[in-house]
């Protein structure tokens, strides 16, 4: 994939064994590998790196490499080359996972290495079930009205639009309309559409117009790992009211903070003390930084680039980062998840005991 770049571009994204991005420690090796001048130089690089890292070659350990591509025409060629390269390594097997979004492949690698289900169907199930559980948290007095149910998504004529078409029937209480979906003849990948275009130009993507005033709209990029929201401001204008990564981050933070306050209280000394951190770069909107600090949150800065943001966010129980372009995520530390699951089990058991006590008391009246 080449993400938000034109359809004629293509490249490679490497997913580490934990489902995250490739370790920064391996970047010098990958750069040298890509720029090796001769086959012999390439071989020597591999042998030296294996020696330095203590990697045993010769088929002593088996390995699976999951491969996927987006909808770019050159993807098939790159997939074929990658498959041949992997197959040339003794003990390695290339598994073609098909045409996927970048987040899907990250999820599959992570689950595969944890011994969990890792098919695309499993991915869709987890997404839809998680969304259903999230909606169950919506207070009765804050239900979704007809207008809020509607969402128009600009799929950038890429893989994100195609996958959203597959999953949208299972997303309850959302009326999703996909434009620039990637279907043949609808448009060209990332051409005057997609998250990068909308975020930078702050204008409507192709296929959007006056009839969309007042309706929630969103844009993916070409491989669906960026997301921004926007509103059409006026029937006579092409400009948009943009909800970029800084604003999306703030919404995530408000929701998570609200849930933590219920468990821990405002002083964070309750049932699940949590180190909650927000990671930004110097390019973040200054107003968003001030807003987050005024909430009493720990806000730290890193160098520009998702690889730096992601690494820092991993240091927290819950770490959140987003770039303005819509590239970001929420990370939950494994230890925190374990503590949360343990707390849930204890509370469920206590609730069960309380129910039994009440039932016995009730029965004693008869």
UniProtKB/TrEMBL annotation:
Residues 118-228, 244-348 form the Phosphoacetylglucosamine mutase AMG1 domain. GO terms for molecular function: phosphoacetylglucosamine mutase activity. It comes from the Eukaryota. InterPro entries: A-D-PHexomutase_a/b/a-I, A-D-PHexomutase_a/b/a-I/II/III, AMG1_II, AMG1_III. One of its GO terms (biological process) is carbohydrate metabolic process. It holds the Pfam family PGM_PMM_I. Residues 47-113 form the Alpha-D-phosphohexomutase alpha/beta/alpha domain. PANTHER family: PHOSPHOACETYLGLUCOSAMINE MUTASE. Belongs to the phosphohexose mutase family. This is Phosphoacetylglucosamine mutase. It comes from Aegilops tauschii subsp. strangulata (Goatgrass).
């Amino acid at each position: 994939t080449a993400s938000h770049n034109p359809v004629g571009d293509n490249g490679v994204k490497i997913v580490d064994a934990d489902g995250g991005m490739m370790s920064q420690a391996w970047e010098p090796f990958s750069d040298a590998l890509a720029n090796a001048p001769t086959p012999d130089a390439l071989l020597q690089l591999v042998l030296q790196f294996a020696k330095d890292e203590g990697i045993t070659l010769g088929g002593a350990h088996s390995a699976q490499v999951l491969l996927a591509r987006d909808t770019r025409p050159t993807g098939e060629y790159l997939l074929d080359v990658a498959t041949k390269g992997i197959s040339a390594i003794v003990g390695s097997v290339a598994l073609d996972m098909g045409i996927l979004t970048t987040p899907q492949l990250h999820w599959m690698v992570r689950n595969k290495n944890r011994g969990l289900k890792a098919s695309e169907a499993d991915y869709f199930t987890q997404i839809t079930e998680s969304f259903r559980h999230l909606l169950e948290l919506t207070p009765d007095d804050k239900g979704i009205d007809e207008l809020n149910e509607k969402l128009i998504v600009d799929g950038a004529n890429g893989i994100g639009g195609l996958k959203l078409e597959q999953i949208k029937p299972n997303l309850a209480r959302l009326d999703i309309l996909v434009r620039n979906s990637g279907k043949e003849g609808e448009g060209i990948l990332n051409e005057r559409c997609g998250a990068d275009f909308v975020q930078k130009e702050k204008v409507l993507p192709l296929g959007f117009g006056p009839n969309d005033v007042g309706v929630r709209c969103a844009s993916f990029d070409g491989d669906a790992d960026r997301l921004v929201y926007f509103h059409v401001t006026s029937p006579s204008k092409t400009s948009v009211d943009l909800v970029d990564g800084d604003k999306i981050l703030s919404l995530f933070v408000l929701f998570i903070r609200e849930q933590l306050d219920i468990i821990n209280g405002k002083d964070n000394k309750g049932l699940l003390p949590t180190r909650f951190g927000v990671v930004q770069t110097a390019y973040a909107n200054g107003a968003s930084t001030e807003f987050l600090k005024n909430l009493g949150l720990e806000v730290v800065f890193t160098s520009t680039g998702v690889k730096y943001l992601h690494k820092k966010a991993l240091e927290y129980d819950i770490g959140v980062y987003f770039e303005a372009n819509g590239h970001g995520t929420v990370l939950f530390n494994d230890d925190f998840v374990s503590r949360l699951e343990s707390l849930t089990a204890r509370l469920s058991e206590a609730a069960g005991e309380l129910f039994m006590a009440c039932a016995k008391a009730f029965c004693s009246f008869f």
